[in-house]
Design goal:
mainly alpha; 58% helix
């Protein structure tokens, strides 16, 4: 069974990869001429 540190590291890596993918998608959308819209907040961040 993995230590909690391993699970935490894996979770952080997934969050980082998600941010990379969102930036890439935003760039692709901008290149395609999509209008700027506010992106939805990820579930783990509060809007307050």
């Amino acid at each position: 069974m993995p230590d909690i540190g391993d699970e935490l590291a894996a979770g952080r890596a997934l969050i980082a990869m998600g941010r990379v993918l969102l930036r890439a998608a935003a760039g692709d959308m901008k290149e395609m001429g999509a209008t700027d819209r506010e992106a939805p907040a990820p579930l783990w961040l509060s809007r307050e």
